[in-house]
From TrEMBL:
NCBIfam families: T6A_YjeE
This protein's UniProt keywords: ATP-binding, Cytoplasm, Magnesium, Metal-binding, Nucleotide-binding, tRNA processing
One Gene Ontology CC term in the entry: cytoplasm
Gene name of the encoded protein: tsaE
Source organism, top-level taxon: Bacteria
GO biological process, one term: tRNA threonylcarbamoyladenosine modification
The family this protein is said to belong to: Belongs to the TsaE family.
Protein name: tRNA threonylcarbamoyladenosine biosynthesis protein TsaE
A matching Pfam family: TsaE
Length: 138
């Protein structure tokens, strides 16, 4: 497990770079942290690190946003916060995304825990202070 402590959002590029380097062949990354911890903000930095110019916002109501890198690769960004039943994930065809080979960045994975593939990266964000965070990933 790698752990990085940051003092402000200006430190996020180095965290995003470390996460991308640690991915290996994994394509599903789950982000765990309380509301306001900075999951979407970190995802925005990861997407930028991977060469996408899209505006990254939380797909809270849409459940999924799609971004494209300059090389034409897709990045899927999920937010399962508003999922009330597991069947909702089946309804939009989660498995087509999770097993597509494209990168899937997942907020609120607790809502669909049993549907997650085995080989995932987990990123945990802990709030230490107003802007300070401890981010660990494996």
């Amino acid at each position: 497990m790698q752990t990085i402590h940051i003092d402000s959002q200006s430190d996020l590029p180095k965290v995003a770079e470390a996460i991308v380097e640690a991915l290996g062949d994994r394509t599903v990354v789950v982000f765990r942290g309380e509301m306001g911890a900075g999951k979407t903000t970190l995802i925005r930095e990861i997407v930028a690190q991977l060469g996408a110019d899209d505006t990254v916002t939380s797909p809270t109501f849409a459940i999924i946003n799609q971004y494209s890198t300059r090389e034409g690769r897709c990045i899927y960004h999920f937010d399962f916060y508003r999922i009330n039943r597991l069947e909702e994930a089946y309804d939009f065809g989660y498995e087509e995304y999770f097993y597509s080979g494209e990168l899937c960045l997942v907020e609120w994975p607790e809502k669909i825990e049993e549907l997650l593939p085995e080989n995932i990266m987990t990123v945990r964000i802990s709030i230490d202070d107003d802007e300070e965070r401890t981010i660990s990933f494996d």
